[in-house]
């Protein structure tokens, strides 16, 4: 077990409320990618692999910025780190404005990368905060509560952003194909101009929330210096982060989990369109995935740790992921889409279980370990590109490409749930 922590909950529920609000923001910004992918395909005439650079730019920022974020948090603390992250998030949102005016896809990707960098700092601060402000065995429950806020934001994003960005998408797509010269230029300018007001509003909201946190009593949480060996009941001195192999297996588990989550959430619209479903309908499919994730979070809040452990919940989720992926491959049409959406249910309790298991027993290395875990989010950057490459360049059927891309993710998650989280630790 770990030496007791400075429990931030002793100051009331305020820390949890603030972090839940942050998770809502994470969800809104992150799951907007599901709408931006078809929007940029429409606006720039992109291939799948080009459009998936949206998720690449967003999630690769975590890989490059997570460890620097850990260093920043050590220097300025959790609260100032959250404030800084929100301001940078606002700056990333404002980059969308000149990107739309100049119709530069690369500049959009820059704005998305800046947003991802801000989210890396915010996630590196908030996830361990949720883990260490209460008992470790109920960390999955607290993360599930925050996850409901995250996924609720993701559910409403397609309806807000989809309505604003992809209104009459099928009609506009045909008009763009038929238009030429100045008429086409004006049409494209009008379509891209749809991003201006929403992202200006988002930038203002992020900065105002940073101001709220500035004047909120959000306690610093100091983690323990060392940990106790469960088998001997003695304090064990650790000198290197590399003495915790379960951490790196946890980071790899986060990598494949986020890969699977993005494939179920952001790619489902493209998947549905490939099945012949209209873009005006498929733009809402991300909400189906996140709705099923929301159900899973509610189950987690009720069941963990009262009825099941977070390790057992992770095993169940991994097995469901394998089953739903197989059924999605073997079916077609709306049935296949429904089982892709049900992967949201399978994915729901994975982050809440994987993260605390990965950073458990780290003691003074908790912040660095958290950053390493956050680096695993880069799986969401690479997997859509891998899927597109397998589908387009290896000429596999898109359903088979999806199957061979996603199945290994759930197999590794099952391994981590059964054995991987205990590697290098003396746990009973």
TrEMBL record:
The keyword Membrane applies. It is a multi-pass membrane protein. InterPro entries: Glc/Gal_transptr_bac, MFS, MFS_trans_sf, MFS_TsgA-like. Keywords: Cell membrane, Membrane, Transmembrane, Transmembrane helix. One of its GO terms (biological process) is D-glucose transmembrane transport. It holds the Pfam family MFS_1. One of its GO terms (cellular component) is plasma membrane. Its main location: membrane. The chain crosses the membrane at residues 16-37, 49-68, 80-99, 105-122, 143-166, 197-215, 247-272, 284-305, 312-331, 337-359, 371-390, 396-418. Gene3D superfamilies: MFS general substrate transporter like domains (1.20.1250.20). CDD domains: MFS_FucP_like (cd17394). GO terms for molecular function: D-glucose transmembrane transporter activity; galactose transmembrane transporter activity. It is found in: Cell inner membrane. It comes from the Bacteria. Belongs to the major facilitator superfamily. FHS transporter (TC 2.A.1.7) family. Intake of glucose and galactose. This is Glucose/galactose MFS transporter. It comes from Pedobacter jejuensis. The lineage of its organism: Bacteria, Pseudomonadati, Bacteroidota, Sphingobacteriia, Sphingobacteriales. The gene is gluP.
